[in-house]
Amino acid sequence: MKTIQKEKISLSNEFIEQVKESIKPHWGPLGWVTYKRTYARYLPEKQRTENWDETVKRTVEGNINLDPRLQYDPSPKIKDELTQEAQKLFRLIYGLGATPSGRNLWISGTKYQQEHGDALNNCWFIAIRPQAYGDSHIVPEYLTQDQPAVSMPFSFMFDQLMKGGGVGFSVTQENINQLPAVDNTVNLTILISHNSKAYAETVKMGAQDKERWLADHVPDNYDLYELPDTREGWVLANATMIDHHFSSTNITGSTDLVLDVSHIRARGEAIHGFGGTASGPAPLVEMLFDINQILNDQVEKKLSSVDCTDIGNLIGKTVVAGNVRRSAELALGSADDHAFITMKQDQDKLYHHRWASNNSVAVDSNFDNYDEIADSLRKNGEPGIVNLDLSKNYGRIADGRQANIDPDVEGTNPCGEISLANGEPCNLFEVFPGIATQQGWNLQEVFTLGTRFAKRVTFSHYDWEISRTIIAQNRRIGISMSGIQDWILNEFGHRVVRGFGEGNDPVTGKKIKRPIYDQKAARRVTQLYQAVVQADKEYSQVLNCAPSLKHTTVKPSGTVAKLAGASEGMHFHYADYLIQRIRFQDNDPLLLALNAAGYHLEPDVYTKNTICVEFPMRAPHADDAEFVSAGTVSIAEQFATQAFLQEYWSDNAVSCTITFQPEEGSKISELLNQYRFITKSTSLLPYSGANFKQAPKEPIGKKIFEQKSAEIKQDVQKTFERQNQDRDKEGFEIVGQEDCEGGACPVK
């Protein structure tokens, strides 16, 4: 049961007005526009979207009130301390010295957060094997809570994806081998009433006329499930269909299943709670028929890793159609599973649904045959590498092997920065150390505030028992740094990798190029790591809960980094000078302000009713002799930089999409092998310049940057406010927005 909170901490209007007068948000060139169309919630009573101070107030209050001490008649001292902490958090986040995850910016402090605490977490992990639903908000009525079912991990995935989270899932042979053989061929019929507004498009997907079909069939000969117009209804429809294929969960024995989708709202109608508009039942109907066919094709056989990944991808495809703009998935297979590694080479299935996940393989430090993986990486940027052995037995690499420090790890989130147990989420907070330093913050205090923010998220109400159990056990948090390249250049005057010396592989003795790190940077990063650990230890004692199992990470960032104008995570800036293109719906009122301010607008050549806007960008240290971009930095230095952060900062993992030039492809296998004792997860992509029209990022010269910048005559925020007189319209979003550099994680 949810606990009724007796006391609430709030920030006064007087305090907020004082902050607004004394602190200026560190908006990047894309910052305010990205914020306005990504995280500013619509306020019906004011007929506009939120302003930044309102978003930060909502976010901070939603978080500070998760402190469990507020559930029980707290003392004035506790309330005063939490109020002061909320004020510090407001100053920090408002100035953009640090931010919580984009999920928190969107959900924290809303009614939806109170109903579904899961929505505060970015991403989740689930193992694909029969599992019990437990005491969860979704349990099919034909199952007991403790009865294992093949449907459960797919239901968990479907539910979290529809809440806007990303899901990593394991289809390693260890898990797939636990699945039973498919027992039954299921004859699936889907009905829709001719009174439904979605009738025509749903019938095109194979649904039958409800009234006519029911009149022609005897009720005793089939199982019927009427879907309610809820997220849970979609999940239960899929679960019912999957479980009918297995004798242990098909309690009626019937192999004729009828699903009635008549009550599902039509395409374009509003979704209350999370936000957005409905897709109608047609995408769900298509998914159910496709998944049913996969199961029917495997009768008397077991599902394979490819089959299970296909089911996950079909779910993801449906969620995207259902207006959760990204369905972030990572499928984790076995390193010797050739069918899994090559499954995206089937072009028809790739374009139909296999695009819906990034695929990685699980390895340990003894694995040393990277040639096939490297060859696949050179061709299509997959699979990524996840070293579960390192994740289970190491925090920071600098702290040495700690056997079973994280024993339940089975996989990772879609971006790979957090190693996760079954049912566990990542829980992120992001610090921009360079910006926070410029604003006069003590970085130890900043990381302490971030640690306490993330810790409180673990006290949310979680819908799934499997998640509640593992979160209470691990209390895992992920305090991240972003704008790392900017900060290091500013703080130390050069990049962290100072060169390479001669070394030897610890097992084979083979000669390697060992990275040489700036030791001042290593000591400083270690100090900040220790500040996080100490803050967690002290707060855990106050809250009488377990210390966090792990604390730090480097997330890939993206949208949140755009707010502050920082480089994403540990990534190097794409170029010293570039044009960043952002796409808007063509009737978005922001376009009038952008045009008046002097930005270049033109119709999108790929998508109808979409306008492409150009933003000239300059990296903060573009003219520094030590500056390198993603297009000029070597693959070896990127591997070494990721290893540095894994060694001295992150006790979880470090997410980085390492870019490589064509001539560097031959080095991938040896570098993966060299860092197999250090790096917990790795992904690579070939560097792509602006080799197609209206590329999202196009490198340009300094002169062109100066010319385009000179054309921008007005501040777009002030222009928008002047044009719209404190009014805005609901439902506008940036088209194709991504929340991380690699494009793996959801925005909201």
Please provide a written account of the structure:
The strands form eight sheets. Strands 4-7-12-13-14-26-25 form a seven-stranded mixed beta sheet. Strands 22, 23, 24, 27 and 28 form a five-stranded antiparallel beta sheet that branches. Strands 3-17-18-21 form a four-stranded mixed beta sheet. The protein is globular and about 80 Å long. The chain starts with 12 loop residues before the first helix and ends in a 13-residue tail after the last strand. It is 37% helix and 16% strand. The protein is an alpha/beta fold. Helix 7 (152-162) packs parallel to helix 13 (305-321) and helix 19 crosses helix 22. The longest helix is centred in the C-terminal third of the chain and has 25 residues, at 519-543.
In short:
This protein is an alpha/beta fold. The chain is built from 28 helices and 28 strands. It is globular.
Tell me the layout of helices and strands.
Layout: H1 13-22, H2 31-36, E1 42-43, E2 48-49, H3 52-64, H4 76-94, E3 98-100, H5 102-107, H6 111-115, E4 123-127, E5 131-132, E6 148-149, H7 152-162, E7 166-170, H8 173-176, E8 187-192, H9 199-204, E9 208-209, H10 210-216, E10 223-226, H11 231-243, E11 256-260, H12 282-297, H13 305-321, E12 329-334, H14 338-341, H15 347-352, E13 358-363, H16 371-380, E14 384-387, H17 388-393, E15 409-412, E16 419-421, E17 428-431, H18 433-438, H19 443-457, H20 465-474, E18 478-481, H21 484-492, E19 497-504, E20 511-517, H22 519-543, E21 552-553, H23 559-564, E22 577-585, H24 590-597, E23 600-603, E24 610-618, H25 635-648, E25 657-660, H26 668-674, E26 681-686, E27 697-699, H27 702-710, H28 716-724, E28 734-735
Parallel strand pairs: 4-7, 7-12, 8-9, 8-11, 10-11, 12-13, 13-14, 17-18, 18-21, 25-26
Antiparallel strand pairs: 1-2, 3-17, 5-6, 14-26, 15-16, 19-20, 22-24, 22-27, 22-28, 23-24
Helix pairs in contact: 1-4, 3-4, 7-11, 7-13, 11-12, 12-13, 19-22, 24-28
